[in-house]
Amino acid sequence: MLKSTTRKKRIEPKPVSEGARLVDQYFDTVGDSFLRHSKAPEPELLENWRPKIFSLTRLNPWYGGLVGVHRRRIGVGKDKLVWLEVGQSSQPTLLLLHGFAAAKEHWLPIVPFLAGYFRILMPDLPGWGESGFNPHKQYGLEDQTDRLAHWLGEIGVHKVNVVGNSMGGALAGLLTARHPHLVTSSVLMDALGLPGETHTEFVDELLRGKNKLVPRDPVDVMKLTDLVFHNRALAASAAFFSATELVHRRDVNTFLFREMLSRRPDYTKATFEDIGTPTLVMWGTEDKVLHPSCAHTFEKLIKRSELCLFDNVGHLPMIETPYMCAQAIKTFVRKHL
User: Pfam families under this entry (predicted)?
Assistant: First the structure.
């Protein structure tokens, strides 16, 4: 008697979408090369590191008295998350996500132009600012996205309009793609995550293992502020106020940068091209960190997107041109409420 045989069906690999290919390409070309040529911080330095209170944080009570900004926190110790908040729960919620080597206070210049229209939430992302840092936890973009979604649920926020700058832009995009029920509209400002047709000298240096976003002394801090600001006066002012904090955080920031690049987003899950909500892609034409051509990649990939460019502005539009930046955000978000 002949035995019946069952022919196994051949499993074809799942086609990789254009958006997934671009995300993977970005982390392949930049991330892998940087990690190969750079050195991780010593574990004991991370274990023994303790945060300090710096000048920008000390300004919070003064600034809060002027525009009604209040400091909030949830959790304790290394698991705490601290944020600034203004407005009422009855207003549409605007979630502002800072970038790498930044903090919640970097959004304060645009708050006076948005207060009264929105409930504004400005968190220190986990690991940054006053929020807890734990060297035994993971700080990839996906890890941070999940933490943000969990935090919003914990504080009873079920709908947001999310704005993210640089690293925060990548988180805003992933939050929108992975948790579409949470997001009404999104603004991706000089966002990390997709390559452009051209890349900057900063990216060239990353390929060789050099990272200007992690200064190790005051001279390096000046190089960093010159990198992120087109306005030289603002660069000098920012260096003065942030030098102590940035140098103190050098080992932690080195760890967080390596985490961000080594734990790449899973492109089998939703990424930027899966964003279905209205999205404003915002960029400074003089961005020396992420080339303005990246903005066109985002605009082309995201179906319901618009492009807003600011002339003579660098990597941080919310600080260099706060009024124009706030007006663009306000107009776009209110149009899609």
Answer: Abhydrolase_1
